[in-house]
Structure formats: C-alpha cells, structure tokens
TrEMBL record:
UniProt keyword NAD, yes or no: no
Organism: Deinococcus rhizophilus
Domain of life where this protein originates: Bacteria
UniProt entry keywords in alphabetical sequence: ATP-binding, Nucleotide-binding
Protein's UniProt keywords contain Nucleotide-binding: yes
InterPro entries assigned to the protein according to its UniProt record, in alphabetical order: AAA+_ATPase (IPR003593), ABC_transporter-like_ATP-bd (IPR003439), ABC_transporter-like_CS (IPR017871), P-loop_NTPase (IPR027417), Type_1_exporter (IPR039421)
Protein name: ABC transporter ATP-binding protein
GO MF terms, alphabetically ordered: ATP binding
Amino acid sequence: MPGGGLLPRRVMVAALAGVRLGLSRGLAHLGEVYEHSLFFQNLTAFLGQRPSVVAPSSPRPLLAPGPHTLALENVSFTYPGAQKPVFEDLNLTLRAGETTALVGVNGAGKTTLVKLLTRLYDPQGGRVTLDGVDVREFDPAAYRGQLGVVLQDFTRYQLSARENVALGRIGEADEETRLQGAARQASALELIEGLPEGWNTLLGRQFHVRGQDLSGGQWQRVALARALYRDAPILLRDEPTAALDAETEAELFGRYRDLTRGRTTLLITHRFNTVRMADRIVVLEHGQVIEDGTHAELLRRGGRYAEMYALQAEGYRSAEEQAPQMPEALG
Ligand code: ADP
C-alpha cells in the first residue's frame, strides 16, 4: 500500500462493499481506484460514512522485520446491521513463516477472517495481534504495509502491466528487478513479456480500445504479482473459486515453496492440491475452528477435512482433465 497519507483507504472499500450492490455499476467502479485518497475523501463525504477503523493518536512503531505471528484472540465479530455474529470467541494463530490453509464451506467465515486481518473491520470482542501486540496500536496504513493481499474480488486496473504490478510505487529504486522477480514468482513474467508492448501494454478494454484483455486466471497472476511486489512479510490470499485456471494452478503449485519462503501466509483456496502442501490446515465451520493439523494428520483423523478431501478426489477421478477442486456444494 502506498505509505502514509490518510489512513483508511481500505475503509472505503469496506464502506463500498456494503453499499456496492445497490449502486449503479459506474459508481461501484470507484471501488477499483480506492488507492487514490482523493476518491476516498469524496466517497466518505458522499456516503456520509465515518471510518470504523481509527488510528491511535500516538501509534506504536512497527516491529522488527522478519516472519511475524498473526493471531485472532477470542475474536467476536458481527457485521454492522446484522443479527447473527460471524465469530464468537474465535482463536486462530498464523505462525511465523508458516503457510496456513483455511478451508470450509461457503459462509463459514473465511473471507470475513481476511477482512479482520486486513482491518477492513475491527472485531467487537477480542483482538487481532501481530507478534502479541494488538494491531489497533499501530497506524493502520503502516500495519497494512506488512500485508500482501490478494482478495477474492481482486482488482483489474485498467492501466499498464507495469502500473498494475507496481501500483503507486512506480519509479522506485530497483523497480525493474523487483517487477521481474514478483512477476516470475506469480507465474506472470512470460505472460507480461509476451504482451504486444511488454510491461507498457495497457490492460483491459474498458477504457481503451487498444487495451489487451486478459483471462480471469491471467488477471489473477497479475494481482498476485502486485501482492508480491510489495515484498510484505505476511501474505493473505483469498482465491476466487473459478478464476484460477488449471494451468496457472499447476505453475503456481510448482513455485509454492518459492512463494511462501520466509513469509507468514494465509491461503484460502478450493484447490486441495495446494491445500495439502500447507504446513497446517484449519477447517472453519459456522465461524469456528473444528479441525487443525497437517494434511496427513487430518486424513488420519477421518473428520470433516478427510470427507471434503475424499469428495474432491472422487470428483477428480471422474473428470481427470480438471485440476482437483472443492466440489461446488462444499465450496
Ligand atoms: P466464506 O468466505 O467462508 O464463504 P464469509 O466470510 O463470506 O464466508 O461469510 C460469513 C458469514 O457472514 C455468512 O453468513 C455471510 O452471509 C455473512 N456476511 C458476509 N459478508 C457480509 C456483509 N457484508 N454483511 C453481513 N453479513 C455478511
């Protein structure tokens, strides 16, 4: 995230998320340019929203670099205006340098968990901590600077490939090397270098006739490259069910260790091929952690994970050309 500035740019996204459905497509599109504080100011004024996430008057300095532990401690959370809580007394620790895969059926609370970790919302009860410190003690923008995030509704910026990846950090020292590194890790390098004007190719056809459109999976590689370019010590990936094509999945699968080395990673994916490689798998159901362990441990346990895995494997056998995926009914 471009540093400093008015803190709650993402709060705008939260505000937007709530009203977005009811808005015209044109206005909803503003959500895609939330990095620009100008829009943030206009929008909060327009919507009459007050940020729900506030910065402390004297924020605590961020901690030393290195893998961090991120934890939800006795977290309770209810969406504004909703009757039912999503979480009541939830405890979950993402251990330093580990990859935790989060699985569970639709509505289990996976995306909401990411929203709390990114401070789109703060919990009403309990706390989110970074190395034991309540994240509300940090400046929100500085805290988010520690996170590389690929959200389910990742943004397709109608800008050049370079701007899509470097977003707000154009012209930084060693930009070329870092762009290439991030794109390579995200399996997007060949794709971008193969575009008609390489890194300077305009992506998307919404605003420019000569723009180059990409497939869902290709856009997702670009979104992942963007998250990696920030070189943040914490990576949160909430994958959309359908966007990743089998080819992209296979490529990312091959680079899995490379992608997660030294980072604390949370991965939400419907692809069990990837899930099984995680250091730890957490099964979420009705906002509660019902199982927690490695792939082998959870299979031995013969519980919910084993059941989901068996169903997926069955689906795989009956459609071998498709990469394994959580069955729709479960995903
Ligand atoms: P998952 O990502 O596991 O599918 P979600 O975190 O999206 O689950 O949803 C968890 C629960 O919160 C669901 O019951 C869902 O209906 C509810 N929910 C999600 N977003 C909102 C929202 N903006 N306002 C009110 N309720 C919501």
